[in-house]
Structures are given as structure tokens and as C-alpha cells.
């Protein structure tokens, strides 16, 4: 059974306005639409064709004219392959680490990116199944130099979840999404089933380069409604609290209707929440493994966004990334800590976590 909490007034009206304005200033791009596994495996090319300067700008999260290692690491947790695939990102990181300055200017980046555009032949990787959606989105950096409203929001997430600050701070940037009339997102899981042949996207750069696939490892989700909607646009949880639900794909088809298709079956969702500006939703995507760490995927966390019938809907997602392998999570945190060792106190802040340091209600 899904644990979900609805929190009215988590953000003020002014904070909602600021986050929306920051997203508009950053620039939004079309969200990825459906693609079959076979189609994605046959093509390792990004869905969007961007110039070198545009890729540099997207990677330069704080827009200071330089690309630092933490910005590359941050994108490794959030990029979805629509404009830069994982292998190119790894090659860019390699080029950055080889630069004595420890960062890349636009001119440096042109050279590194040109090499990444013509890599040696690599075995193709399996990508996780894509879900269908239509919207626009962007990512907002939450680290040093970010807007104070974004820092405040991250601190609230830390306080609410009672997780170690390092876990929250080393997770994905804030994703902001704009749904216009007719836009939607089919039901999906934010996180993934874990298996030995897959690597978590957020710890990939510190992990096994030979992993056959990369998956999202998101222990919990916080969704923030940044606007109210005149009609439609509800968040739907098709199988929440369904005690007869069988955790199989066939169970998502009832009377010949696919419950994941929010365009057709939104009204049949077991739980639907109407967007109200300032309200936040919190749910856990995984169960506990019984030892204080992230366990199996909670199938009941399946969710989607109903089509907007009238008005515009703005939402933001904050995910807390945790690797099912605690040793892999620790290696990743050490990688990030190395970048901050020159800054007073930061090496202690990002020390590896033991099981006993984690949220005890896992």
C-alpha cells in the first residue's frame, strides 16, 4: 500500500512565482515522448539536435561561463538522453578531469565535445522503457550559488524527510515542468527495479562502466504544485490502496483499458489530487529492505498527470537518489567529496553514510 502525504502551504505564493520565473529564465525544452525499447536500442543518438554552444549552456548550470565537475555529476543524475547520451557525458567528464584548470571554458569544451561526437565504436546499451508524455521542462541547480528560494526549498525537504542532508544535497536538481492545455504524462514509476546488470544513473560516474543499462534510483519523490489549474491536470495514482492489485503488467489492463493511459482512463484512478498552488506531495518509491536501506520498488507508487483541460499547470519534482548498494552510494559520495576538499568543512559534510545514519522509517 502506497504511503502518500499531501502538505498544503508547503510553498508560499511568492516562492511558487520565483521558481516559475527561474525556470522561464533558464529556458524550457520539450519533454521526451514515447519510444519503444527496440527503437531506442537501434539509435544511440539524442532526440534533440543542439549546437555545441547550446550544450555548453545547458551543462553550465550556474551560468558562470565555466563547466565544473559538480555540474557534470549533477547532469549525470538528471539528464534523460534527449540531448546528450550517457557515454558522451562520461567522455566530457574525462576531458574535464584531464584539464589542469579543473574546469572547461567554451573553447576547451569545443575540443572535448568534438572528440565525444566521434567516439570509438562501443557496445550498445539497453535503455529503460520510456513512458509517454507531453510537456515542457527544465532543471534548476540547487547547489552553491543557487537562488535562496531554491536553498530554502531543499532545506524543507531535508527537514520533512528527516534524511541526512548529504543524501538530499547530492540528489538530482529540481525539475520544473509546464503543462499547457492538452499536456499530460502517462502513469509510470519514478524509480526502477534493481538488478545486478543495471547501474543507478546518479552513481554511474563512480561505478561499473560495463553495466548493461542505467536506471533511475529515486528513493522518494516530492512534487510541488506551483500553480492551480482551472480544469483537469490532476495527479493520478491508478492502483493506490488497491488491495487486489497484482504486481504484473497485465493487472494494469482492466476491461481492455490500459490504466497507465491517463488521456483515456484518468477518471478511473484510485486516487486523484487536484493541483493547488503551494501544496506538496510526498511519497516513497521503494520499500525498506529491513536493514535501514532502500528495498524493493513499491509498485503502488505508479502515478501520472491527467491532461490539462483549461489553464496552465506548473509543477516541480525533487527526488532523493539512493543506490540500492550502500557501498556504491558511499563511493559516489567520496567522488563528490574530492571536488570539495579545498573548501573548508565540505570534506566532512559529504562523508559516506552508514546504515545507522539513514532515516529510520525506511
List keywords for this structure.
29% helix; alpha+beta; Recoverin, domain 1; disordered C terminus; 362 residues; 7-stranded antiparallel beta sheet; Jelly Rolls; 11 helices
Plain-language structure description:
The chain is an alpha+beta fold and 362 residues long. It has 2 domains: 4-26 and 133-339, q2cbj1_9rhob like domain (Jelly Rolls), CATH 2.60.120.620; 50-114, Recoverin, domain 1 (Orthogonal Bundle). The chain has 11 helices and 23 strands. The strands form 7 sheets. A 7-stranded antiparallel beta sheet has the order 1-18-12-23-8-7-2. The chain has a 5-stranded antiparallel beta sheet with strand order 6-9-21-14-17, with no helix packed on it. It has a 3-stranded parallel beta sheet with strand order 5-11-10. The two termini are 14 Å apart.
How is the secondary structure organized here?
Blueprint: E1 4-7, H1 13-26, E2 29-30, H2 37-42, H3 52-59, E3 67-68, H4 69-78, H5 86-98, E4 103-104, H6 106-117, E5 126-127, E6 133-134, E7 136-140, H7 148-161, H8 165-169, E8 174-179, E9 184-188, E10 198-200, E11 213-215, E12 218-225, E13 231-232, E14 235-237, E15 253-254, E16 257-258, H9 262-265, E17 271-273, E18 280-284, E19 286-288, E20 294-297, E21 303-305, E22 308-310, E23 313-321, H10 326-340, H11 346-349
Parallel strand pairs: 5-11, 10-11
Antiparallel strand pairs: 1-18, 2-7, 3-4, 6-9, 7-8, 8-23, 9-21, 12-18, 12-23, 13-22, 14-17, 14-21, 15-16, 19-20
Amino acid at each position: 500500500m502506497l504511503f502518500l502525504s499531501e502538505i498544503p502551504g508547503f510553498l508560499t505564493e511568492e516562492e511558487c512565482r520565483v521558481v516559475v520565473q527561474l525556470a522561464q529564465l533558464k529556458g524550457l525544452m520539450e519533454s521526451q515522448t514515447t519510444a519503444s525499447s527496440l527503437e531506442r536500442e537501434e539509435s544511440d543518438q539524442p532526440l534533440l539536435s543542439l549546437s555545441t554552444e547550446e550544450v555548453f549552456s545547458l551543462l553550465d548550470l550556474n551560468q558562470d561561463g565555466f563547466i565544473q565537475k559538480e555540474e557534470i555529476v549533477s547532469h549525470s543524475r538528471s539528464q534523460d538522453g534527449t540531448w546528450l547520451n550517457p557515454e558522451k557525458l562520461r567522455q566530457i567528464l574525462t576531458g574535464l578531469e584531464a584539464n589542469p584548470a579543473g574546469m572547461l571554458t567554451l573553447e576547451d569544451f569545443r575540443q572535448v565535445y568534438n572528440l565525444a561526437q566521434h567516439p570509438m565504436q562501443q557496445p550498445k546499451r539497453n535503455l529503460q522503457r520510456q513512458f509517454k508524455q507531453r510537456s515542457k521542462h527544465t532543471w534548476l541547480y540547487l547547489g552553491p550559488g543557487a537562488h535562496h528560494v531554491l536553498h530554502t526549498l531543499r532545506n524543507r525537504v531535508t527537514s520533512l524527510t528527516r534524511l541526512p542532508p548529504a543524501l538530499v544535497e547530492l540528489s538530482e536538481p529540481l525539475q520544473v515542468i509546464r503543462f499547457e492545455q492538452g499536456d499530460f504524462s502517462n502513469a509510470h514509476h519514478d524509480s526502477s527495479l534493481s538488478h545486478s546488470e543495471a547501474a543507478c544513473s546518479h552513481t554511474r560516474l563512480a561505478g561499473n562502466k560495463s553495466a548493461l543499462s542505467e536506471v533511475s534510483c529515486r528513493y522518494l519523490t516530492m512534487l510541488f504544485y506551483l500553480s492551480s489549474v482551472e480544469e483537469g491536470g490532476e495527479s493520478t495514482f491508478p492502483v493506490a490502496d488497491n488491495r487486489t492489485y497484482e504486481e504484473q503488467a497485465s493487472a494494469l489492463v482492466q476491461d481492455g483499458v490500459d490504466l497507465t493511459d491517463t488521456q483515456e482512463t484518468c477518471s478511473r484512478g484510485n486516487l486523484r489530487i487536484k493541483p493547488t498552488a503551494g501544496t506538496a506531495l510526498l511519497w516513497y518509491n521503494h520499500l525498506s529492505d529491513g536493514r535501514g536501506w532502500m528495498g524493493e520498488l513499491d509498485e503502488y507508487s505508479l502515478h501520472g498527470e491527467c491532461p490539462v483541460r483549461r489553464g496552465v499547470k506548473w509543477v516541480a519534482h525533487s527526488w532523493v537518489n539512493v543506490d540500492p548498494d550502500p557501498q556504491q552510494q558511499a563511493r559516489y559520495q567520496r567522488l563528490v567529496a574530492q571536488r570539495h576538499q579545498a573548501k573548508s568543512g565540505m570534506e566532512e559534510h559529504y562523508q559516506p553514510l552508514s546504515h545507522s545514519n539513514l532515516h529510520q522509517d525506511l
